[in-house]
Amino acid sequence: MARFPDVPATTSDRVRLRRFTEADAPRVLDLHGRIEVVRWLDDPPFDLQVSRADAVRWIDRAHTLQITDPRCGVWAVEVVATGVVAGTALLAPVPNDPRERRQIGWHLHPDSVGHGYATEAAAAVRDHAFACGLDEVLVLMYADNAPSAAVARRIGMTELGVLPDPYYSGESLFFTMTRDEHEALVGAAGPPP
Questions:
Q1: Domain assignment of residue 122, given as a range
Q2: CA–CA separation, 59 and 67 (whole Å)
Q3: Model-level pTM?
Q4: Of 15, 145, 181, nearest in space to 82 by CA
Q5: Tens digit of pLDDT for each residue in 89-104?
Q6: Is residue 9 included in any domain, yes or no?
Q7: 74: Cβ–Cβ under 8 A, 6 or more apart, which residues?
Q8: What is the CATH classification number for the domain harbouring 27?
């Protein structure tokens, strides 16, 4: 089996991104068995996990993303101080995109919201995407997902507004960042933590 690296190995003093393991299945089940989390992740009907086997299958599918594109991945957002998996961060292809762009995303367990973990993880994935040579990244979300929109703004993404979504059904709130915008952001703020 190919190695699935932690990307980056240490995100900050508080959070790191790492590969999901089968030992994470109970937490993955607790995360993806909640409608308040899953409702933001895909189009209805929402598919809640109901068993440990569901969680293990999800972890296995998460690993296959990196086989398809080594730049991409689905990583556990682990709180360094406690070892608790706060949630998930990802870099993935935008479905059906003729320009073959990549999107960054995140979702957290409700017990981990409000601590800045999503912002730190999303910034790390953003930086990883550009370090891998991408010229642009997107963030797509439901138009009423105010908490995720706030994260996208905090990491410097440019809001394009609510637009017809050619990739998913209906409309989505679009954010983008180009390589030049990222270089200006990182140059102004110094290297990422």
A1: 15-189
A2: 14
A3: 0.90
A4: 15
A5: 999 999 888 888 999 9
A6: no
A7: 20, 62, 63, 65, 88, 89, 90, 92
A8: 3.40.630.30
